[in-house]
Specification:
The complex is a heterodimer of chains A (about 110) and B (about 130). With about 110 residues, chain A is mainly β. Helices cover about 5% and strands about 45% of the residues of chain A. In chain A, strands 1, 3, 4, 7, 8 and 9 form a 6-stranded mixed β-sheet that branches. Chain A has a 3-stranded antiparallel β-sheet with strand order 2-6-5, with no helix packed on it. The longest helix of chain A has 5 residues. The N and C termini of chain A lie far apart (about 30 Å). By secondary structure, chain B is mostly beta strands. Helix content of chain B is about 0%, strand content about 55%. Chain B has no helices and 11 strands. In chain B, strands 2, 4, 5, 6, 9, 10 and 11 form a 7-stranded mixed β-sheet that branches. Chain B has a 4-stranded antiparallel β-sheet with strand order 1-3-8-7, with no helix packed on it. In chain B, a hairpin with a 2-residue loop joins strand 5 and strand 6. The model of chain B has no long low-confidence stretch (mean pLDDT about 90). The chains are: A mainly beta (about 110), B mainly beta (about 130). The interface between A and B is medium-sized, with 25 and 25 residues.
Chain lengths: ~110, ~130
């Protein structure tokens, strides 16, 4: 079980706004930046959001990240069928001195 | 355009050593200013960080794997290697190499941060 907790699944309809949460302890999310990755079946993960809310070049502004205290969120607006993927949050764990990933949230577009 | 390509044996016998390499091409000369990490994903499971290294003096390992893992990088940082000893079926996974930025901890230490480029992954099955 990961020290970063994500809901195992989320869903929405095309055009809708969906949020995926990520909860951690004070030694993780509160004190360190959060990053998000998107993974399609059979492919490598892709960096989606870094430093809590920064989008790498090429990532649509429909994707946004936020952090407050010991929780973080990934929001996807204008949901599209192509957004159907697994989303992972990640941060630094000072207790273990290493990066940690959340368990992943499988997003289904209905 | 940075490219990372993992290569490995595909299958390893239990109790033996798993060795993977990652060829790094493209990018720029500032590849020297990054950490390089390994991540694995067991079938149907989530991502597990294995370890990250900047150079021989700055290496971080997942505590759960630390006793069995060794990461190395070539002097020109165009080849990364992972060695995992005494493997069991639980080590069956897709293994990814990735370039990793860093951030500065409040203590002033440079720590591995987010993975901005990934290889396509190499499936390793531990089975006799």
């Amino acid at each position: 079980q990961s020290v970063l907790t994500q809901p195992p699944s989320a869903s929405g309809t095309p055009g809708q706004r969906v949020s995926i949460s990520c909860f951690g302890s004070t030694s993780i999310i509160r004190d360190f930046p959060v990053n998000w990755y998107q993974q399609f079946p059979g492919t490598a993960p892709k960096l989606l959001i870094h430093s809590n809310n920064q989008r790498p070049p090429g990532v649509p502004n429909r994707f946004s990240g936020s952090k407050s205290g010991t929780s973080a969120s990934l929001a996807i607006s204008g949901l599209q069928s192509d957004d159907e993927a697994v989303y992972y949050c990640a941060s630094w764990d000072d207790t273990t001195s290493g990066p940690v990933f959340g368990g992943g949230t499988k997003l289904t577009v209905l | 355009q940075l490219q990372l390509q993992e290569s490995g044996p595909g299958q390893v016998n239990p109790s033996e050593t798993l060795s993977l390499t990652c060829a790094v091409s493209g990018g720029s000369s500032d590849n020297y200013d990054y950490y390089w990490g390994w991540i694995r994903q067991s079938p149907g499971k989530g991502l597990e960080w294995i370890g990250s290294l900047f150079d021989s003096g700055s290496t971080y390992y997942n505590p759960s794997l630390k006793s069995r893992v060794t990461l190395t990088v070539g002097t020109s940082k165009n080849q990364l290697s992972l060695r995992l000893t005494s493997v069991t079926a639980a080590d069956t996974a897709v293994y990814y190499c990735a370039r990793q930025t860093y951030f500065y901890h409040s203590s002033g230490i440079r720590l591995p941060y987010y993975f901005d480029s990934w290889g396509q992954g190499s499936l390793v099955t531990v089975s006799s």
